[in-house]
Amino acid sequence: MLSASNLISQRGGMDVFKSINFELKAGQCVEVLGDNGAGKTTLLRTLAKIHTQYNGHFRCDNFLYQGHRLALDELLNAVENLTWHGHLRGQVRSEEQIFSALDRVEMSRNSLSPCAQLSQGQQRRVAMARWLLSVAGVWILDEPVTALDQSGQELLVRILNQHCAGGGAVLYSTHVTLPVVNKLTLVVEAVENQRFAR
Amino acid sequence: MILRLFFSELRLLSRNKAQVLNPLAFLFLGVMLFSVGVPSTVQSNGIYAGAVLWFIVLLTNLLALDGLFRRDYDNGVLEQILCASEIPFMVILMRIFVHWLHTGLLITLLAPLLGLALGIEAHALPVVMLALLLGTPALSFIGATGAALTVGFSRGGVLLALLVLPLFLPVLIFGANVINDAVAGIDNTAQLYWLAFISMVAFTIGPFATTVGLKISVQLQ
Amino acid sequence: MFLREFWHKLGSPKWFYQISTGWMIGFAVAALVLLVVGMVWGLAFAPADYQQGNSFRIIYVHVPTAMVAQSVYISMGVAGIVLFVWRMKLADVAIAACLPVGMMLTALALFSGGVWGRPTWGTWWEWDGRTVSTLVLLFLYIGIYALREAIPDITLRGRASALVAIVGTINIPIIKYSVDWWHTLHQPGSFSLTEKPTMPVEMWAPLLVMVLGMYCFAGYIILARMRIEILLREQRTQWVRGLVA
User: Fold this and answer.
1) Residues C5, C10, C14, C20: is their CA dihedral positive or negative?
2) Per the structure, how many domains does chain B have?
3) In C, what residues contact B, Cβ < 8 A?
4) Contact at 8 Å (CB) between C34 and C64?
5) What are the mean pLDDT values of chain A's consecutive 10-residue runs (198 residues total)?
6) Strand, coil or helix: what is A118?
7) Interface contact A69-B79, CB threshold 8 A
8) Is the pLDDT at C229 greater than 50, yes or no?
9) pLDDT for C115-159, tens place per residue?
10) In this structure, what are the phi and psi dihedrals at residue A32, rounded to the nearest 5 degrees?
11) 3-state secondary structure of A173
12) B155 confidence band (pLDDT: 50, 70, 90)
């Protein structure tokens, strides 16, 4: 579903990390580890086709990307945001579907308040509802644990496991290892002595 | 789908009234400041009206342009438009169109008021409106390219002006000329066609260039 | 076949650096000869204008700089297209090299225009059609320059400036046309510039030499700047180290 061979992302003509090879089959998770500044985010953005400077090859079809920024408009409420994300992908979701997704992430009580009024963790949960609603097979998640409380983290692991069990695949970056079943680990290493960028 | 996105865009505008109203307030403020600044001994009945009206319209557009993609860029929606949408081009085209609705079209509808404030006589007002209607799309579509390229800088406003204002020059020239001729009672259909032509060119290349510019800008993060 | 091979080789900065040595020297020699010949011919031997006297001779600086300034911008647009279509690194090097050269030439054209305008029109500055289009050209250059300064990432900087150069190049004809129209409407021929076709041969022949010389000069400077830029960008590679050592 998702594979990369000799993939090196570049920034300003310089290599960001050492070449990366992996192959992800349906039902598998990849946990991307690495120090700060090793290039985890750049790798994920490359796979999501947002960062377009790279060498090597990768294949990534029908994916969903979740960056540090949650892509929730603070002026819209959770339901409106989720509806919008559906439309962006050309999908129409009924209110029941959206409410049941919000219910699964325990956000049904706040579903109609503007996202500006939600806490970071609550916004994270709304973002999780977005994953649940999408039909994408591969989820690319950049540090999904951030700002989540204990129950939120358990919820996250549950959702990831369910997605993999349903034939999906997940690639996520993190600093804390998550107890996800069927997990591969990928360590991103920064290129030593970064060349002088002009 | 595009239609649904369009309606949600309108809903967003209704939530964010400042985005619509602040530039409009600036528009009237600019007209007022100019009118007060002109010496009262000068019978300025519409001599400068064409130039001033277009100049203030350009500035208003510029102010509004700075916010065109700013929020989307900050909250990550822009990344999603580029990576999740089937055709980012159409979504961006629609965004620019909505921008034109609440700048260009709205200014066109308010043109009679502005015209009267600037001393343009009533018989010329339909032409003034037509000129604004045909000329303002060019401002939105060319300007969006500049907005896309400068959205990555937290203070991109001046740079945006520097990139975009020289390209606005033809619109200013033809637009002001049309209004001046209309005030003088001369028929100037030819330059109206020119305004339409410039807008068509801007419409053809603007959305493509904007998409390319946004793809560059999201990589700056 | 030959062209195709040439095109492929242009992708390699090293190859370009080696091959351009000869071109650069060629341009330099041609520029030197043409500019000296044109200058001496134009300043000393060409007849004085019957209306403007000797002051018209600044045409031999003014017209070439203005023409080349515009050509340089258009070549930046072409380089921009090459950058987007073929992702050729050399195109960005070309844009980086063209930018300051074009900017200086535009400024020089405006300045020499002012110097010429003083004795002829009686003013340093007049909002004439061509003056305005040259001024807009300067602003277009400044815009790209400012954008390049603002973007730290070298690859993105190249793409962004290429995009602006393309959009600007598409707009140049529209700007010129609109400005000409505005000019003719506002000042119907009150200042008649001595146009080329109405000039006698003795006057325009040195001008032609000067224009060609200025093109060669710009070609020389741009190539020299490109070569320096290549060395800077490739400073960590084996071949540059070998060259410098």
Assistant:
1) positive
2) 1
3) 84, 132, 136, 139-140, 142-143, 146-147, 150-151, 153, 156, 159-160, 163-164, 166-168, 170-171, 174-175, 177-179, 181-182, 185
4) no
5) 90 87 90 90 92 90 90 90 90 89 89 90 93 91 91 92 91 90 87 55
6) coil
7) yes
8) yes
9) 888 887 778 887 877 888 899 999 999 999 999 999 988 889 999
10) -95, 115
11) strand
12) confident
Q: How far is C138 from chain A (nearest CA, A)?
A: 26
Domain ranges of chain C: 12-49+57-186+207-244
Residue B81, number of CB atoms within 10 A of its CB: 21
**Interatomic CA distance for residues B22 and B59, integer angstroms:** 12
Asked whether the beta carbons of A119 and A149 are under 8 A apart, the reply is no
**How far B15 CA lies from chain C's nearest CA (Å)?**
33
Instruction: Write down which chains contact chain B via at least 3 CB pairs under 8 A.
Output: A, C
ipTM of the complex: 0.90
- Which residue out of C167, C169, C179 would a mutagenesis test of the B interface target, given it has the greatest number of B Cβ atoms within 10 Å? C167
Residue range of the domain that includes B142: 2-220
Mean pLDDT in residue range B36-64: 82
Is the separation of the CB atoms in C224 and C27 below 8 Å? no
Q: CB count, 10 Å around CB of C32?
A: 14
The answer to whether A83 contacts B8, with C-beta atoms less than 8 Å apart, is yes
Q: CB-based burial of residue C245 (10 Å sphere; 0-12 exposed, 13-18 middle, 19+ buried)? A: exposed
Tell me the per-residue pLDDT of C24-74, one tens digit each, with 9 for 90 and over.
999 999 999 999 999 888 888 877 777 777 777 888 888 899 999 999 999
Query: For the whole model, what pTM was predicted?
Result: 0.91
Q: How far is CA C217 from CA A154, B4, C25, C74, C213, in A?
A: 70, 57, 11, 17, 6
Please classify residue C44 by burial: count the beta carbons closer than 10 Å to its beta carbon, then call 0-12 exposed, 13-18 middle and 19+ buried: exposed
* Residue whose C-alpha is closest to residue B147's, from B132, B163, B126: B163
Put simply, whether B13 touches A (Cβ < 8 Å) is: no
Q: Tell me, what's the pLDDT at C8? A: 79
User: C153-180: per-residue pLDDT in tens?
Assistant: 888 999 999 999 999 999 998 888 888 8
Torsion angles phi and psi, residue A54, rounded to 5: -160, 165
Q: CA-nearest residue of chain C to B216?
A: C156
